[in-house]
């Protein structure tokens, strides 16, 4: 049975352990995954809850309640794009769900505002106005926390201001939220090389080439860094 809000008849770690065991030995049971997700949500284990609700909705994509609860949890995690996706599914299944329609409208407006701030940050960065660009990127990420390009570009602006640790932190978030964002991997490699961490930089250049074997900059930098490292032995 599904509920409109994350609820469960059993609580506590023992119930979670029991459900995990049952899920492990039972294939394609959406209700088990949903109930386990509800328990995990109650325990504030949000990432795990999302994982099981994703599996529940994979098994039964027509179940609007799972989509709605996923949207709620994803928005709590700052995954605005994911929340929008699932609210759209809710409205496909239940067009008269006014709460979902209102939530979707709010998130779309938030997305639009974040995009405008991101674009303004890009324009300011191109003009070399990095302090204001940083402010715009930061405000954009407050609205859309998992937007990988904004993390990458904020990292660039911080790098050019000499704030290397903060830059690396945002590059790291960029590749966390989008593992295939090649610019962020490349920027991390450049920064690692600048910080005299050649072995870590080499790994990152290799990651860039794994994503794009034709990336000339990464290939040339990798060859030069590999040769330089070998000469120091």
Radius of gyration: 22 Å
Query: In percent terms, what proportion of residues is strand?
Result: under 5%
Low-pLDDT parts are 3-10
Overall structural domain count: 2
Please report the first level of CATH classification, the CATH class of the largest domain. Answer: Mainly Alpha
What is the CATH architecture assignment of the largest domain?
Alpha Horseshoe
Helix content: over 70%
Mean pLDDT: 91
> What spatial form do the alpha-carbon principal axes imply?
globular
Name of the CATH homologous superfamily of the largest domain: Tetratricopeptide repeat domain
CATH topology value of the largest domain: Serine Threonine Protein Phosphatase 5, Tetratricopeptide repeat
The main sheet comes to:
none
Beta strand count: 0
Cα distance spanning the termini: 65 Å
Q: Count of helices? A: 12
Topology pattern, helix = H, strand = E: HHHHHHHHHHHH
Structural class based on helices, strands and sheet pairing: mainly alpha
Topology:
Blueprint: H1 13-25, H2 30-42, H3 46-59, H4 64-76, H5 80-93, H6 98-126, H7 130-143, H8 148-160, H9 164-177, H10 182-194, H11 198-211, H12 216-231
Helix pairs in contact: 1-2, 2-3, 3-4, 4-5, 5-6, 6-7, 7-8, 8-9, 8-10, 9-10, 10-11, 11-12
């Amino acid at each position: 049975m599904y509920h409109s809000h994350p609820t469960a008849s059993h609580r506590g770690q023992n119930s979670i352990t029991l459900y995990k065991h049952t899920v492990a030995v039972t294939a394609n049971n959406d209700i088990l995954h949903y109930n386990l997700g509800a328990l995990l949500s109650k325990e504030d284990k949000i990432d795990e809850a999302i994982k099981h609700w994703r599996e529940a909705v994979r098994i039964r994509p027509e179940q609007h309640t799972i989509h709605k609860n996923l949207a709620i949890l994803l928005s709590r995690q700052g995954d605005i794009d994911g929340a929008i996706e699932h609210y759209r599914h809710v409205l496909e299944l239940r067009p008269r769900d006014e709460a979902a329609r209102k939530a979707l409208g709010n998130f779309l407006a938030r997305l639009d505002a974040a995009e405008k701030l991101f674009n303004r940050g890009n324009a300011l960065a191109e003009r070399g106005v990095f302090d204001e660009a940083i402010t715009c990127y930061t405000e954009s990420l407050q609205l859309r926390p998992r937007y990988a390009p904004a993390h990458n570009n904020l990292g660039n602006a911080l790098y050019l201001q000499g704030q290397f640790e903060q830059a690396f932190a945002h590059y790291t978030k960029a590749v966390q939220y989008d593992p295939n964002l090649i610019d962020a991997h490349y920027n991390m490699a450049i920064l690692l090389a600048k910080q005299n961490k050649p072995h870590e930089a080499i790994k990152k250049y290799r990651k860039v080439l794994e994503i794009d074997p034709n990336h000339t900059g990464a290939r040339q930098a990798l060859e030069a860094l590999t040769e330089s490292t070998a000469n120091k032995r």
